[in-house]
Amino acid sequence: MLLFILLLEKRQCVVDVAGLGQIISCVTSLGSIAWALAAYQKALRLSLPSKAELDCWSLVFLFIWRVLVIGPRVLAFAVFASCTQYSLFVLCGIHWVVMLVWIVMQHTKFCSTKIQEYCFNAVAAFICIFDFFNVIEGHTRLRYVIYYSIMYCENVAMVIVWYFYQSTASGWYLVSVIVIIVAIFWVGILVQIVYYLAFHPNNKQPYASEKRIRICVPWSELVEYDDVGDAV
């Protein structure tokens, strides 16, 4: 919301005290979302005795990955809302419905009743508006490819609409916005790959011998879904 307000105000490249406060608020909000997702991974693994715990370096890379992916996403939302406003709600609504159907099709089993399970699925689908939220055990790379492909296409589409709508009036931040949304996202994906190959708990003893993250995985394993939820 603060990013949306800043874009509507079309500030020049001069930041006063109020503007600095808004920027700090945006950064801390982004950090809070990224940290919440990273902390969820740690808490989930602590609750499952069969799972290796996340160490400090794993958390650091998880946090950086989420920041670099969620940041461009939120910025894309902000610039899109600054020129279309209510269309953002339509886009988010469609994305939420698609994610909800996808999650329901995965047959999650987190709750004791179907009503609670559907509520959980609805919340998980809402989280997926901003970033991927895995809800089942098993290889996640195919799900990541599908989700991040959709997410990136949406981000690029939003920045294209914004660019042609007000490119002549966007001021000093035009190029910065485009670079962040189009390019920084891939830096986040690179950090994710480094995390899985070097810092994922399954790559450490005593789990490495049986559960090490493999670069090449048979297709039959990629499409196989298990029952117990696990985020990474």
Give me some keywords for this one.
single chain, 232 residues, mainly alpha, 9 helices, globular, disordered C terminus
Can you give me a brief rundown of this structure?
69% of the residues lie in helices and 0% in strands. The chain has helices spanning 2-9, 17-47, 56-84, 87-105, 114-127, 141-166, 174-199, 208-211, 219-222. The two termini are 30 Å apart.
Question: Strands, helices and their partners?
Answer:
Layout: H1 2-9, H2 17-47, H3 56-84, H4 87-105, H5 114-127, H6 141-166, H7 174-199, H8 208-211, H9 219-222
What does it look like?
The protein has one domain (2-222). It has 9 helices and no strands. It has helices at residues 2-9, 17-47, 56-84, 87-105, 114-127, 141-166, 174-199, 208-211, 219-222. The chain is globular. It starts with a helix and ends in a 10-residue tail after the last helix.
Rg: 19 Å
Number of helices: 9
Total beta strands = 0
**Fraction in beta strands:** under 5%
Share of helix among residues? 55-70%
Instruction: Give, in order, the helices and strands.
Output: HHHHHHHHH
Q: What's the main sheet like?
A: none
| Overall average pLDDT | 79
Determine the N-to-C terminus distance.
30 Å
- Tell the overall outline: globular
Total domains: 1
Low-confidence stretches: 225-232
- From the helix content, strand content and strand pairing, which structural class follows? mainly alpha
